[in-house]
Design a protein that fits this description.
The chain has about 150 residues and is an alpha+beta fold. It folds into two domains: about 1-25 and about 130-150; about 30-120, Immunoglobulin-like (Sandwich). It has helices spanning about 1-20, 125-150, and strands at about 30-35, 45-50, 60-65, 70-75, 80-85, 90-100, 100-110, 115-120. Strand 3 and strand 4 form a beta hairpin. It is elongated and about 75 Å long.
Amino acid sequence: MMQKMRTLRLVLGIAAAIVVLNPNRADAHALVLGVKLPPDAPDLLLVEASFDDETPAEGAKITITVADGTVVAEGTTDEKGVCQLTRPGPGKYKATVDSHGHRDAVEFEVAGGGGGEFMGWRPDQVTNLAIGVGGLLGLSAAYWWFRHRAG
């Protein structure tokens, strides 16, 4: 019985250390950014920002930059989480949104007059999910291994 308690304390201690030392912050909800190049409006760039619970990111700061970091356009989202900007010339760009400490970015390309839609990909969420699931599986395996060993 004493060995089982030590094993349980060890596993709980490892779990607590993983949570405390995890460099990724836990957001209450993530910010999602989308860039649209409407084909019927060749001079318009629509940037939409919302949280993953579909609440619009009102008042979010939008920045459009080129590869070297030069800012080509800036704006703020309205109450619907939408920001309308003048479409830049052909080339590769990056849209960044910042709202209440939450950030997302989308790389997009403007071609000669065509349309397109670009959505942010959240690798940090995928990584956090993998770390969380892997950590839980690892802790479970460690617990059962120690429990079996203690017999």
